[in-house]
Write a structure and sequence with these properties.
- The structure is a homotetramer of 278-residue chains.
- Chain A is an alpha/beta fold and 278 residues long.
- Chain A has eight helices and 13 strands.
- The first copy, chain A, has two domains: 76 residues, Alpha-Beta Plaits; 196 residues, Formyl transferase, N-terminal domain (Rossmann fold).
- In chain A, helix 7 crosses helix 8.
- The two termini of chain A are 24 Å apart.
Chain lengths: 278, 278, 278, 278
């Protein structure tokens, strides 16, 4: 008996649920949970099923594809730990939260390595017997720096996601394109607000009563990729911008870990710069 | 072309989704949205589908029942305004919120009448051209009082829900049984805390930092029926119990209106003193 | 025995609390509550005290001013109902919430009138025996329209606040300047996000997971006045922009009523496009 | 120039603020922030001031005590790292969050040691070069076990707080009395709900839509000490009790860290089984 996550992304038409559930039925699979969504505006159909039964993964995938339109995307995934690469700069809170969750067994993930442009977090990461790679950006141009990072990433073999846990360098379009829908970032603001440098200072000067954070996939619109999760906290006039930044760290780590968990459990569909999350 | 809400409550077994979706497919129905849940502990299956197509309501209901196990509950509901009776005592906030939402067209409901044991809210209710019935409990025993209320309820014909918008009298087991799963109450606490009289005073004396409210169906366990919706707000030491009560009113009205909306849209299944909400 | 709210807004210097509390002590006043805040960046001091005792309001005000620097603002206010004018367009939810709270006695306010550019809300407002004035903007230029509104406002005598309960016309700089720090608006977004037309549609297209609302004083930066209160709710992919708009209404009414309550209780200081709220 | 936190806990009477602020003024101290609260029911006055200036700590304390009633409690505290002892059992999440915050420099604390009745968390704690003491409860009676723990605590010298980061043994009344108002616990429920064993299972069976956690000082009413902080999250029917437990961990760690931070910053007053938090 195996368990599979089946993810279907299709143009909507009548009978999709019928066709897929008939495949499950004929293969004698048990549906443990099932979520569907139709976006009427774009006429897109999304379905995520958790099934178990005695079936070969490829056979299941083929059987589903056979009954669905040609341009449908079907993924059949066996639940198992995914490989992730974390990139960070100097701040400890978001990375630390992931390390502790990993240590506690809360994440379906192997952390292959942490790559940083500074060595500041090395001693922390080494405590957890995880490789730490410092790729300094000093004295090299952006392209050279990134190529070194890519080389480092490649040296760890296949991976599923790159998690930017407060990696404070802007990535080149080439880098982003290479790893499309694979890079998860935490933005220190609730998009689409205060884009750019020091959003906490901007928020302070604006006199906001709420601050937040946004986890999103990175694409080539700066800070503008598909949003996965957002959260906020209330602040008041007594918060300096540094107080906001401190409180913001708590939101940032919560939101990034939440987004990572959703990705690891294959709960996210990306389309039209948006996400469907089951 | 008609739209239907299909609600299915069955013992779980393999193939239920397949069978139902095949019925939809064969009847040429379009699935607009679809939610399912299996409670593994009790082996119960719940499904709510929104479909449209050219089909007779009874024919659809029969077709579904035909393919499902005998003890399955199937409801096919055409979206339309439901009839509700509101019961209140003296407090205005929860009733007022419902009246304003009704006036704004936010509720799929006709308010047949407001029944109260006091006349205090009469002038408010009359502003909205809704019948107001005062059934005083003074000088009569509980059974007689309730019988008068039941007579009043019956005089308005068929109804779908009784909404207790801060009705502060305890209902008899007979009353509750008569209208099982039809009475929605707002409890001035987040269950299961501070059951009984003046929960805000109890909360104050306990020094809580959070207060809340719970909307639930009424059954014969006092304040213990199936929970539909809950919400909280933060308080601090500067709140007297009357301040908590005032702030609590805002939570109460929000939660009751949310629960009512869920009921009116046929989104609630009740089982084992719990709810499944799609 | 009278109760007073004392509001002090001064440039910070040593001894301010000492000086003010000495005045209270010498006048034999009891401090019921006391809040202070120093903004170190702008070197501003804010204090709000609730005191009671047997003293004349003017005498108290003079006594405080005497001991404080010349450019200090001192307000001594007797708690009593303030006069408010509400402006609305066609939407009922925010206005309705204020009307119900007013009816329930929750607001320290007399509603002098509701002024709208449409007659749509007239029947609702009239239910509550509150004057409703339709000042149509059709066929007249902006200045003429506003002058008619100003004439209408003036006809009701002194007032403390104008509440824009979803008034959907842009006010001229002249209007805004005339009533500086007296106009409270509810913005259908959590500032500084999605400024401009149809923020819900923008939010939907951006795929946000949170929507919110902002109550603020109106100044001559469109949607950019000092923020009083903000709140958010979570949404997901299943929300169309109209669903977001519907859910947004609930946030809007909560936030506007919260801001109005703060203003009526003299809890807000405005400075540098920000607010201090005690 | 030194900075001091001044905490005053007195029976309320006229002139307290005046008297204290006069002391500050005469000593030429600058008030950086100031909070007061009067509990009218119990006639208690609480004040926390942050001041700086050129004064001796003892001189400041004496000067304040001199002008206040005899039974007043006055604390003058220089901000510096406090010493804490953490007690845990087997769960990693709450302890891990504190360790990471400590590592990030977010806590004004030295962690003297982690004491546990199991060795399960030893390797984690040792990563951070913090002493870990296993005091097994097996084969010894409760009193003997606790005496060993007390011996271990004593071996680390003076400490300010004991943090129970999911320490799952009931403490004896003697232990609790010895460290009155010094033990901070995280309770896996939002009090006063579901007291006792497996609250998540109880919550699941009750069908709640909200779960939460409570940080409180421990006294001799089981789970009933003065509440410091509470937080909740929303759940739904799809959560098994194990899912609730997992989600609950996130709330637990957030609330415990928040409470610890408040304690370390001397922001908490305890009285009548409640807290005042500035």
């Amino acid at each position: 008996m195996s368990q599979f996550r089946v993810l279907i992304d299709a143009n909507d038409e009548k009978g999709l649920v019928h066709k897929v559930s008939t495949v499950f039925y004929n293969l004698n699979l048990n549906i443990l949970s099932n979520s569907e969504f139709v976006d009427k505006e774009s006429n897109k159909f999304f379905m995520r099923s958790l099934v178990d039964g005695d079936v070969d993964k490829r056979a299941l995938s083929s059987a589903i594809k056979e009954v669905l339109p040609l341009d449908t995307t079907v993924k059949v995934i066996e639940p198992k730990k995914k490989n992730i690469i974390i990139m960070a700069t100097k701040e400890l809170h978001a990375l630390g939260d992931i390390l502790i969750r990993h240590e506690a067994g809360e994440l379906e993930a192997n952390i292959l390595a942490v790559i940083s442009n500074y060595d500041k977090l090395e001693s922390l990461v080494n405590k957890f017997d995880i490789p730490y790679v410092t790729v300094s950006h000093e004295g090299v141009d952006r392209e050279t720096h990134e190529q070194k990072i890519i080389d480092s990433i490649n040296s760890y073999g296949d991976f599923d996601y790159i998690v930017l846990a407060k990696y404070m360098r802007i990535l080149t379009p080439q880098f982003v394109e290479t790893y499309e829908d694979k890079i998860i970032n935490i933005h220190h603001s609730f998009l689409p607000a205060f884009i750019g440098a020091n959003p906490y200072k901007q928020a302070y000067e604006r006199g906001v009563k709420i601050i937040g954070a946004t986890a999103h996939f990175v694409n080539n619109n700066l800070d503008e990729g598909p949003i996965i999760a957002q959260e906020v906290i209330h602040v008041d006039h007594a918060y300096s911008w540094k107080d906001m930044q401190k409180s913001g760290k708590d939101v940032e780590k919560v939101v990034l870990s939440r987004a990572l968990k959703l990705a690891l459990e294959d709960r996210i569909f990306v389309y039209e710069n948006k996400t469907v999350i089951f």
